[in-house]
């Protein structure tokens, strides 16, 4: 129950941030912008849940454990046959695939491949740097960074494939404003 409260605090903060900061801004730009940005916000909230949470209740204890630097040897777990490396690789790719799809839909819908991949890289790097800082039991790995960016690339490919359908849906919402 105590651990659940820690997550509840983070989700409450995210909900308040959405309602009081983003909702009004996005709503005023139309239903299409509201939908795309809200989907991205929900997606990023789940990424936070799986990678960094609980955050707020961990802040006072950030300096109470040693910081483990990032493992900079790519795919060492695969090469050494350690742990459930295949599962971790697949989950990292799956985790960032929605980013590659949703990022071009938020804000500038003509987002290019390089810009999408760059921001996917920045998000992943931020997570990998913060994980061992926020929680002493987590580690960061260059393999995660590589597979996360691969997921972003895959998501962008899906975006390009489904672009006509996606824009049709968003344009339908736009015309109903």
Explain this structure to me?
The chain is mainly alpha-helical and 177 residues long. It has six helices and no strands. The chain has helices at residues 2-28, 31-51, 76-80, 85-102, 113-134, 142-175. It is flat and about 55 Å long.
Task: Spell out the key features of this protein.
177 residues, 6 helices, mainly alpha, flat
Short description:
The chain is mainly α and 177 residues long.
Please count the beta strands (DSSP E, at least 2 residues each). 0
What percent of the residues sit in helical stretches (DSSP H or I)? over 70%
Number of distinct helices: 6
How far the N terminus sits from the C terminus, by CA atoms, comes to: 44 Å
SS-based structural class? mainly alpha
Query: How many discrete domains?
Result: 1
Oligomer: single chain
H/E series: HHHHHH
Principal-axes shape call: flat
Uncertain stretches: none
Radius of gyration: 18 Å
Q: Average pLDDT value?
A: 91
Percentage beta strand: under 5%
Biggest beta-sheet profile:
none
